[in-house]
Amino acid sequence: VVIGCILGDGAMRCKKNALLEINHSAKQKSYVDWKYDSLRRFVATPPKIRRGGYNRVAYRFTTRSLPELTVLYKQFYKDYIKIIPRGLKIKPLSLAIWFMDDGCKSHRAIYLNTQKFDLKSQMQLIRFLEKQFKIKASLNKDKIYYRLRIAVASVQKFKSIVRPYILPQFNYKLPS
Fold it and tell me: Is the pLDDT of residue 47 over 90?
C-alpha cells in the first residue's frame, strides 16, 4: 500500500524519520478511509478535513515518523524530490493504488499521470512495467509535461492485473 501511495499522490517528509502524507479531495473520503484502514498501525490520528486555498477541501492523514518509512524515503527521494529507485518491484496492489491515484482513461487508452517525475524516472517506469508485468507503455506529452500512456494492446493485460484491487468508485477510470 505504501509503495502504491508513493508512486501516486502520497508525499513523504523526513527529519530524523520519515512520514507518509495521504491527501485527497474530500470527495474521495471513502478512498482515504480505505487507505487509513490499510495503514492504521502506522497512524496516530485518523483522517481529518482540511481547508486549503482556492476553496479546496481536502481529507487527509499522516503516518507517524517511523524508521521503516525512512528506508522507503531514502529509496524514493533524492534532494527532497520523488524519484524511481533502480530495481523497483511492486505488487499488483501497489500498481492498482498508483492507478487509482494517478490513472485515467481516454477512449481505449490508459494514462498514468507521472508528470511529477523527471524523464529519467518516467523511462524507468516504462522499463519497469515492461519487465515486471509485460505491459507496453510510452511517453505522452500532456501540454508541457510528459506522462505514461499504456499501449492499447496492453490495456487488457493492465486491467487483468489491477481489476481485483480497484475499488468500485474507480471503475470509471478503466476503459470498457
Answer: yes
